[in-house]
Amino acid sequence: MNRTRVVLTALLLVSIIYSFAEAQQIPPTLVVTEPVKKMEFHDQITLVGRTEGISHSRVVALVNGKVLRIDAEEGQPIRKGDALLSIDCSKIELNFRAKKAEAAEAAAKSELARKNLDRAEKLFSEETISQSKIDSERATEIADRENRNRLDAERDAINIDVFNCVVSSPYDGYTVKKLVDIGEWVSPGTPVYEVVNLSEIRVTVDLPERYFGRLKIGSEVLIHTSKNESNPLNGVIIGIAPSASEKTHTFPVIVSFDNENEELGSGMLVKATLFLNESFISLAVSKDAIIRQGSQTLVYSISEGKANPVYVQVGSTNGEMIAIQSEKLLEGTLVVTRGNERIFPGSPVRTAEGGPPGGPGAIGAPMGIDGHRKEAPDQPGADSTDRNKDDKKDGKSEKGDK
Question: How far apart are CA 375 and CA 359, in angstroms?
């Protein structure tokens, strides 16, 4: 029994030693680093809003009639002028034909009256006819001409009704919902289809009254959605209501952004980050350097060739850079921006530039007196190289002594 325990213990120790030896031989992970910068940021506030297309219309019928055909399905892309539905206009077409004939008859009578007037004018100039005769011919020509104009207008109006028997989209966009079906009777003003234009999206957010006066029209806005949390869309404030809501005491702020690629639809909940007028100076890192672990946020610096986690507090952002607070980071400190998803505290790393780990910019690296990062030399510094060589020599000496 005791012998079995000894054997198992020995095997366990060998396994641990072998695993440790293998861990020591893990090749360093290739990473890309960028220096911590000092930048100007604006105070921010993030509010929730709902998206809506620049246009969302309930297209209406313009004539009386029965719905003959549905020409567009719901949820389909459409172009301006595409048919949505057709209304039975057989009666309207008959009226148009009748009115067209009346207009043609009136045109012929008007032309005859004009010729008669021309002849009468010539006879009157020769004093062949009386004044009353010429006055009668002039009145007849005017009446026939105006009658012709009236019938032409009535004919054209009916022709417009014939054209309006097909209800079409007023702009490029998408069909949303049909509001009538085949066989139903519609009148002028009856909503028949909903369409939306998503080429531009607008978001209305409610600004708390304590922030009123701290925004300006034209300032940038970052739009975050559930699918692009790390890559926000850029928008701009196009309107700020001057009066607050009586119920919520908030001021509606209207944000607009281009949606040419149609990344967002209408009715989505989004977060809008607004930039207030006040600004401040802060240390900043690339958004790619940030790693979130639950409620904590960290970045990785490199110290002596190993990944060193540094916990930070994040603040405002401009979309690419994020303001941070940390007592362990200085301007110019190098932090990992690529490859940080493959490393862990203490894991060996090497930079893409091939520079020595823990070089200029690592935690504890010297800074200028003015607080600005010193430019990294083209070649590794002599002090750093000598120190690495001394460390290696000391390590060899200790092994020799052993």
Answer: 12
Q: Is the pTM of this model over 0.70?
A: no
Identify whether 340 is part of a domain. Answer: no
Q: What is the dihedral of CA 280, 281, 285, 291, to 10 degrees?
A: -50
Domain boundary among 279, 314, 341: 279
Task: pLDDT tens for the chain, 402 residues: list them.
Answer: 555 565 456 445 545 544 554 555 678 889 999 999 999 888 888 999 999 999 999 999 999 999 999 999 999 999 999 999 999 999 999 999 999 999 999 999 999 999 999 999 999 898 888 999 999 999 999 999 999 999 999 999 999 999 999 999 999 999 999 999 999 999 999 999 999 999 999 999 999 999 898 899 999 999 988 877 778 889 999 999 999 988 889 999 999 999 888 888 899 999 999 988 888 899 999 999 999 888 899 999 998 889 999 999 998 888 789 999 998 899 999 999 999 888 889 989 988 665 444 444 344 343 333 333 334 334 333 344 444 444 444 444 444 443
Q: What is the CATH number of the domain that holds 251?
A: 2.40.30.170
Question: What three-state secondary structure class fits 103?
Answer: helix
Specify whether 200 is located in the same domain as 272. yes
- Is 331 within 8 Å of 370 (Cβ atoms)? no
Backbone phi, then psi, for 177, in 5-degree steps? -155, 135
Q: Which domain holds residue 259?
A: 45-54+196-279
216 and 263 assigned to the same domain: yes
* Buried/exposed 184-206: b ≥16 CB within 10 Å, e otherwise: eebeeebebbbbbbbeebbbbbb
Q: Is residue 368 part of a domain?
A: no
The answer to the question of residue 1 being in a domain is no
